Amino acid sequence: MVTTQRHFDRICPSIPYANPDKGELASALVAEFAPYLDANNANTDDSFSPTDIATIFTHAPHLLFLARRFADDIARILAGNAADIINEAHDKFRQSMRHIDDENKAMQTIRHFRGRVSFAAALADIAGLTIMETQFTWLSDAATCAVQETAHFLMRHAARRGLAKPPQDNLSGCGWIIFAVGKLGAEELNYSSDIDLIIIHDPDANPLNDPATAQAFYVAQTRALVKLLSAATADGIGWRIDLRLRPDPGATAVSIQIAAALGYYESIARTWERAAFIRARPIAGDIEAGYAFLDEIQPFIWRRSFDYTVMDDMRTMLRRPPDSSQWTEFNLKTGHGGIRTIEFFTHVLQLVFGGREPEIRQHRTPQALHMLAKKDWITSAQANGLIALYTLLRRAEHRLQMIADQQTHSLPRDDVSLINFARFMGHESAQSLCDTLADILSKVSDMTAHDLLDGILAANISDTSNLVKEDNKTIDIFLEDQEQLVTWLNSIGFERPTDVATALSGWIAGRIPATRGERSRMLLGRLMPELLRQLAKGTQPDNAFAALAYFIEELPASVQIFSLLDYNRHLARLLCDIIVLSPRLTQILKRNPMLFELLLYKEFFDPLPNAQTIAGDIRKIITGQPVEDALDNIKRHTRELRFRAELQAISLSSDRATLERSLSAIADATTQTVLELARADMERRHGKIAGMCGIIALGRLGIAQLTATSDLDILFVYDAPDAARSDGTRSLDATSYYIRLTQTFVSWLTTQSAEGALYEVDLRLRPEGSAGAVATPLDRLAHYIDTDIWLWEKLALTKARFVAGDDNLSDMAMKPIHDAINQAHNRDDVMASITDMRKRMAASQTATSKWQLRLQTGGLGDLDLLIQGLRLIHGDHFVKSGQTVAEILALLTTDKLIDSNDANILADAHMVMGNAQHALRLSMESTRTINDALPPALGQFLSSWLDMADVNQVAVALDDIRASVREIMTRL
Question: How many C-beta atoms lie closer than 10 Å to residue 856's C-beta?
Fold first, then answer.
């Protein structure tokens, strides 16, 4: 065993120890590689025996693969000549790439180059023949050279195709700038590291024959660059390219225009992107233009004043996961006291103080630490100690990656593999390696203490809102590796975790209006773990997240909703429930997110007041206001009340009757106050007139049983002397006056403004329908009802109720209606009219799902017509109009006009189907959009609303109910 090499250390104290389970393979490898060792040095103290070499390759399948390709280099590497081999590889690679025209040949050359350099660097490290700084240089220079020559190859290829002029040898003026960031930018590349690149182009200064094609050209060039370097071939891969550090990677092209990149970095770029540019350097393309770009964004990276504003952002970046209770799968990069701790410690101090002290702006970690010590921001002992510890951790990280050429930072996942890795590191036991690591990590934690940062780190112990913890692993929801986030999302129940993670990345990139500001991103980051867990509790978390995404992505550029939810986490959970259950309410909240503030008031879940009280409140709010302001305030107040009523119902805090009563009271009050406002406006414009007017409600509003999506069926009635005219300067006769008043009234109810609309209004039940005037004179109404009314129109009038206008007109307007319907009607005539209406309804609308309860045979539409028909047949038993189904059936039963059993069946049918319809309309804007298979959340809510076990029981019950209604209709 060789133990005297000069570059062994605590983390790698010797060359690897043998794996006893691989004895047979080791013997075969001894025979295979013995011929490639230098026989002249076989008996020296520092020689490497065939057994030593075989041991190395049994631990690392990747190195065995390379050894078989570059066996002739083994003796030279072990003789200390790795640098010569790497220099030869560079020279040969550059010469080859400058004379290659074929892409396949280029890819083969790239992979051969990377393999030879990687093998020389790895074997020299394992043999203790080089230091880590040299390793970094070899690996970084090789990657840089590969990117440079590949870029040159592509620009030459473009010139041959007639797309651009032939490039300069150094690509000066090529319009394409390739920046290395991350480890390559710092010239500290890992053994199997991805290459982090940011690529930009100049659409104006370039050698293209058609400058208008610049965007498409450089995007295509970038994709070709990635393919040549990263595609898997029979020769392996070259370097994996990661372009995700570019501005807003989910939304931007792989190559970005210079102006767009500058605009991004000067406006919405985040702190970690500033940190990334500490280590940025142009490595290929137009290098001079690259440095000019860096000069231009210096104020973004380095702020002149001590940048304490960065602290809030760095709180997240500096979070340290808790100590692991075991060493298997411990992450050398992100673990407590690991590589990231040292890097972020360095970067924070650079960001804070680098604005005033340019010497601190070093892109290599060791040099930056030395300069921080020179400027007295840390001690020399700290700098030297952290550099040494950083080197040890990076060496262990490299050794991990040599095994299978994977970018991993985690120790093996089981004890046996951990023991073998310890042997590969030159330790006789896993305990020896783990004890060494424990000492290193502890020292890192001690040495990264700093007066400026201790407060931040202490705060982070309690501020873990961005963190999620599963299986003893802690990750940051936005800033950790994408793969780790995807794994966590999958573990809690998401079936499409990559899609969710991509959306989260876009939000935190400021790609949507709601997260353009740094504070809004911070708040959303704090909220997301809880929101995601809440969504994952449902049966379809991916669909629930899609609904949440739809909500968040449509929010305006404001942080108010996030602040509200951050301080009231119970509201965040309720928001998730609403989003999952009710797309309709979600739409309302998207347009008016601050409706959620209402839940902070203790009276939110109290019963709503009656119509008179609501109307009085509205009058107080709008007194003395201009019309536009008054209307907006009415819309706001009405919206808040409707949201309150609907949320009470959707949270099962109120029942159907309460919901109907509340929604109808709101509509009554709204029609009253808007009519008053419209009359005042008419008087201002045209003067007062001798006459009265009012609103008769029909349909659901008439019987005070509105649903969440009901429109208002109304009839506008007025009474004025024949010769009446308004007394204003722009005088109008009564007909014109009340028609304009009606038009104004309806317009104010229905027209969209910044505050939305109040209601949809239907005036088609007036005399002559759509052909008649929108305002009906009282005498015309009475005459029409007396002489021209159709029987089906009488059915509609059974629901009539006077809701707004002059009190003195109420009885006068309702009298002809009552006279017409409160008399007995011929059963055959009524039933014939009902049959005709059912046929017309069936011809115009067909149920597309079983949840369209109004259109189903035996459904709510049929039941409603039947009850109205019975009400009309026995009209002489009624005094007024506007009775509900329950009230009509109760009177008919009392007067023995219907079999009590039939009445009970019909009443129960109306209650169950009505409840179901309310539940569906609370969730969806229209039942036409609902399929037979309900979303699970809606099915659960529907069954709870109906007090049934599940949605299947609901469906069976509705089928039975409709069958009963059909049977009774046939008999009656």
Answer: 21
Q: Is residue 417 located within the same domain as residue 546?
A: no
Cβ-based neighbours of 102, under 8 Å, separated by 6 or more:
none
Q: To 10 degrees, the CA torsion angle through 703, 709, 711, 712?
A: 40
Distance CA 769, CA 269 (A): 60
Question: Residues 6 or more apart from 299 whose CB is under 8 A from it?
Answer: none
Alpha-carbon gap, residue 240 to 237, rounded angstroms:
7
Given 463, 496, 520, the domain boundary residue is 463
| C-alpha–C-alpha distance, residues 793 and 813, integer Å | 16
Domain count of the fold of the chain:
6
For position 46, what pLDDT does the model report? 58
* Residue 559 included in any domain: yes
pTM above 0.85, yes or no: no
Q: Are 38 and 71 in contact (CB under 8 A)?
A: no
* Cβ pair 539, 936 in contact under 8 A: yes
> How many angstroms separate the CA atoms of 3 and 9, rounded?
11
Quick count: other Cβ atoms within 10 Å of Cβ 457? 19
Q: How is residue 293 written in tokens?
A: 């770009």
- Residue 426: CATH number of its domain: 1.20.120.330
Q: Are residues 15 and 48 in the same domain?
A: yes
User: Has residue 430 been placed in a domain?
Assistant: yes
| End-to-end CA separation in angstroms for the chain | 104
Kindly report, residue by residue over 375-389, the tens digit of the pLDDT. 988 999 999 999 999
Task: Report the DSSP beta bridge partners of residue 255.
Answer: none
Task: Find the CATH number of the domain harbouring 697.
Answer: 3.30.460.10
Phi and psi at 13, nearest 5°, equal -75, -15
At 687, the amino acid letter reads: G
Q: Supply 271's token pair.
A: 């702190």
Residues 338 and 236 both lie in one domain = no
Q: Give the closest residue to 449 by CA, choosing from 318, 317, 335, 309.
A: 318
Residues 373 and 382: their CA atoms lie apart, in Å, by 8
Checking 156-164 for CB contacts under 8 A at 24+ apart, the result is 157/101, 157/103, 158/217, 158/221, 160/101, 162/209, 163/208, 163/209, 163/210, 163/213, 163/217, 164/206, 164/207, 164/208, 164/209, 164/217
**Is residue 798 located within the same domain as residue 845?**
no
User: Both 531 and 488 in a single domain?
Assistant: yes
Q: Is the predicted pLDDT of residue 4 greater than 50, yes or no?
A: no
Structural domain harbouring 717:
658-820
Same domain for 280 and 308? Answer: no
Are residues 193 and 112 both part of a single domain? Answer: no
SS3 for 286? Answer: coil
Give domain status of residue 750, yes or no: yes
Tens digit of pLDDT for each residue in 728-772? 899 999 999 999 999 999 999 999 988 889 999 999 888 888 778
Is 87 part of a structural domain of the chain? yes
Contact by Cβ (8 Å): 855, 847: yes
Name the pLDDT band for 856 (thresholds 50, 70, 90). confident
Residues 749 and 671 placed together within one structural domain of the fold: yes
| 391 phi, psi to nearest 5 deg | -65, -40
- Looking up tokens 């994952």, which residue turns up? 536
